Here is the input.
Amino acid sequence: MNKARLFVVSAPSGCGKGTILGEVFKNSDVFYSVSCTTRDPREGEVDGVHYHFIDDAQFEKTAAENGFLEYAGFVKHYYGTPAEPVIRNLSEGRDVVLEIETNGAFQVKKAMPEAVLIFILPPSVDELKRRLNKRGTESEAVIAERVKAAADEIAKAYDYDYAIMNDGLEDAVRDFETVMRAAKNDLSDADMFRTSNKTIKNMINEVLKNA
Ligand code: 5GP
Here is the structure.
């Protein structure tokens, strides 16, 4: 049996990563890590399912006790990956997926170099603005902050192992599954999605245009 893999997925909010991962998980037995956050739940978000919603004091206590595999501040709130379930699932042979922002992703890569970092790109920053507005869950000021954060995040995609683009759900799911399978089995099938590939570098440049 292949060794269990740790996949770290990042994408700016509004990029559709939740939908892509939802589809991918239908067909696989991966452990999806539920993060802790100090932000308030959005409508429809369930404690323990989408996040563990905790307050600043609880967050700081867990961090001080080394309970997080990684953690980071993002748009005025803290987000962290509980370490224990990730380590346990990997040691039981199950693949694990973290869905986290870039600072956290690089912390994980440093601590666990065998982790596979995958970035999901929006078709463009303009399209991302449109999606965030359409979601209608945040104020204009928060959306502006998130768009700025998104552009900063996308600029770090060059340092991921792979990048795929979400310009259509079906294709994005297929590309994501190709990357997971190739990374897991040390295959070259997903080499076209490696960020060392010139086409992918150009794709990231293109997304960042007008940001
Ligand atoms: P949102 O508030 O839109 O749910 O998430 C904001 C950002 O925080 C997203 O980029 C998301 O991937 C990231 N995030 C979610 N959980 C974690 C975590 O445990 N650690 C880190 N570093 N980032 C996280």
Notes: The two ends are 44 Å apart (CA to CA). The longest strand covers residues 68-74.
